[in-house]
C-alpha cells in the first residue's frame, strides 16, 4: 500500500510541559504514519493540547473546537482529539458539549493515543483520563532527530503544593519524579542528536527527588550529573517553588558553569496576608532572603516570576506590597495574570472576589513596572560579553539569532554560524525584546 501519509495538526496551549507533551504525541502518531502539518485545513487529524490554568484558556478550547466544525463538515473523516489539562479535567463534558470531538486523552495517557485513534476507526469515542499504572515515558517511541539545539526534558510532573487558586494538583496529580537513569539516558540521546541546551521541566521541578544511585537525588545532584555529559553546554530548569530551593541546588548554581544564570521563581504576591491565603507557605521576607542567597551564589542571576493580581480579598495595600516586592527584587522578566476563579479550588468559593476593573488596573500598573525593569535589564547588557547559543538565521540576510545565557534573544550579523554554535558575543544595543551584538574575535 502506498497511501500518502496522513497529516496531523497539533495546537498547543499553555505551558512548556504541553510543548514537550505535544512533541511526544507527534512521535507516537509518527510511528503510526502521521506527519505534522501547520495547516488544520489539510489535516486528517487535529489535536488540541489544552490548558486549564485560567478560565480564558479553558474556554478558548471550546471556541476553537467550534471553529473546527466547518472542516469536519467538509471532511467527515477528520478526527478531532482533545488532550492535556482540559481533557483531564472535563473529558466527559467535552464529549457532551462537542459532538464533533472523536477522542479525549488525559495528560498521563497520551502513549495510548495511537490505539485510541484505532478505536475511533471503529466508530468509538474513547475517553481516557485515568491515571495509569504504567509509565507513559517508557511506552513512547524514541525521540527522533532534532534539528534544534535546544530541547525540553520532563523530569517531574504533578504538584503537591495546593496553592489555593491552582488546578494543577488536580489536573496533573501528585508529584512524581522520573528516575535519574532515565533522565540521563534521554539527555544523552538528545545530545547525540545535536542538542546543546536542555531545559528540565516539571510543575514543581526543584522538588525533584528521583530514584538514583544511593537513594533519592535532588535537582542539584541531577544537574551536576547532567553537566558531565560532553557536548551538553547549557542546563536550565523550570518551574520552581521558593520552598524547594535546596542548598545543594544553590551550590550547583555557584559551581556549575553549565547551569544558566536565569531562574524563574514565582512568588505570586508580595503581601504576607495574601501569600497565606494563597497557601504559598512562605513569607515575603523568606522569599527576599532566598533571592539574596541565590544572588550570593550567582551574582549575575536574572530572576523572573509569576504574579496574580486580584486574588480574593486583595486590598490596595496588599497590591502596593506586591509592587514593593517587585522593586526590591528587580526582575528581568515576569508573567502576570488576573486571578481567575477555577471550579474545585479553595479560593473559588470565597465571597470577597475583587472587582474586574480593580484587577485590570492593578494588572496594568504591575505590567508597566515589570516592563520598566525588563528594559533596564536589557539595557544593562550593552557592553557586556555573554554566551549565545545560536538557533536559526534571522530575518535579515547574514543575520543569526540565538539566546543569551540569560535567555534573551540576541541577533548578530556574522558568517559561518549554524544552529547549535555557542559563541561569545559583545552586546552592542538593546531593544525591549531582543539584543544586538557582535561575535568576539570574529
Ligand atoms: N488565576 C490566575 N492565574 C493563575 N495561575 C495559576 N492559577 C491561576 C488562577 N486561578 C498562574 C500562576 C502560576 C502560573 C503558571 O499561572 O501565577 O504560577
Ligand atoms: Fe499550582 Fe502552586 Fe503547584 Fe505551582 S506550586 S503548580 S501554582 S499548586
Automatic annotation (TrEMBL):
One cellular-component annotation, GO: cytosol
Cofactor: binding comment: Binds 2 [4Fe-4S] clusters. One cluster is coordinated with 3 cysteines and an exchangeable S-adenosyl-L-methionine.
Main localization (coarse): cytoplasm
Nucleotidyltransferase recorded as keyword: no
Enzyme class: transferase
Residues covered by the Radical SAM core domain: 145-376
Cellular compartments annotated: Cytoplasm
List of residues binding [4Fe-4S] cluster 1: 15, 51, 85
GO molecular function, one term: 4 iron, 4 sulfur cluster binding
Residues that bind [4Fe-4S] cluster 2: 159, 163, 166
Keyword Ribosomal protein: no
Domain called TRAM: residue spans: 379-441
EC number: 2.8.4.3
Alphabetical keyword list: 4Fe-4S, Cytoplasm, Iron, Iron-sulfur, Metal-binding, S-adenosyl-L-methionine, Transferase, tRNA processing
Cofactor: [4Fe-4S] cluster
Oligomeric form and interacting partners: Monomer.
HAMAP family linked to this entry: tRNA_metthiotr_MiaB
Family (UniProt): Belongs to the methylthiotransferase family. MiaB subfamily.
Name this polypeptide is given: tRNA-2-methylthio-N(6)-dimethylallyladenosine synthase
UniProt source species: Pseudothioclava arenosa
